[in-house]
C-alpha cells in the first residue's frame, strides 16, 4: 500500500499524507483524492447492483447511440465492463451526431444516447428526456507541427491572426468557435467547416489553419499536429448520458448509465 501511495504522490506531484511517528493523516489533497475514490467505488457498486437486477430480467437488449470520440473511449470501456458482468444482453450501437440520433431516442428506437454541450452554448434538450453529466473535458487548440514554440504558454488571443477551421452550420456547436474567440477579444477568420475532427486535424497538419479539439479527440492526434492548452480561457465540453423520462426505472438502462458515470469519474 505504501508503494501505491508513493506512486500516487509522484503522479499528482503533491503530498497526500502527513507522516509523524506512527500516525498518518491525509493532507488537503489527500482528502480530495479520497473523496473521489469513494464516489467512484459507490458508483461501481451501484452499477453492479443494477447489473444483478438485469440478471433477474433474463435476456434483453440495449440500444445505444454515440458520437465518435466518446464512442471510441467512454462507451467502449463501459460496454466492456457491462458485458463482463452480463453477456446475455444484446447491445447495439449507432454512431453519428446527437442532432442525427436524438429523434430516434424520443421515438423509443434507442434506450440511451450520449450527447454533449460546450461552454457558451445552450444545451438542446426537451421535457421528455433526462440528461446526466458523465464528465467534462478541456478544449484544446491544434496547430500545425512546428508552427508555434512548443514550450511556451499559449493564449487564445495569440491566435487572432490565424485561419480557423470550425464546425458546419448543421452542427449544434457551430457557434462555439466564434463565441470562444470572442472571450479572447477577437473574431476568428473561419475559412473552412467540417464536423469530423480527423479531417480537421488533417487540414491543420497541411497548414490550412488551426482548430479547437476536445481532449478526447486529441489523445491520439495527427503526427503533423501539435496540441496546446490555453492559458487565458478555460473552455470545456461536457458529455451526458441521455434517456427518456422514466428510463432509469428500466434495469438495463440504469445499469449502463451507472457504469458510464463510474467510467467518467475515473477519467
UniProtKB/TrEMBL annotation:
Cellular component terms per the entry's GO annotation: protein-DNA complex
Domain of life: Bacteria
The UniProt record lists the keyword Transcription regulation: yes
SUPFAM superfamilies: Periplasmic binding protein-like II, Winged helix' DNA-binding domain
Gene Ontology molecular functions: DNA binding; DNA-binding transcription factor activity
Domain HTH lysR-type: 1-27
Pfam families listed in its UniProt record: HTH_1, LysR_substrate
Keyword hit for ATP-binding: no
Keyword annotations: DNA-binding, Transcription, Transcription regulation
CDD domains: PBP2_LTTR_like_6
Annotated InterPro entries: LysR_HTH_N, LysR_subst-bd, WH-like_DNA-bd_sf, WH_DNA-bd_sf
Family the UniProt entry places it in: Belongs to the LysR transcriptional regulatory family.
Name under which the protein is recorded: HTH lysR-type domain-containing protein
Organism this protein belongs to: Spongiactinospora rosea
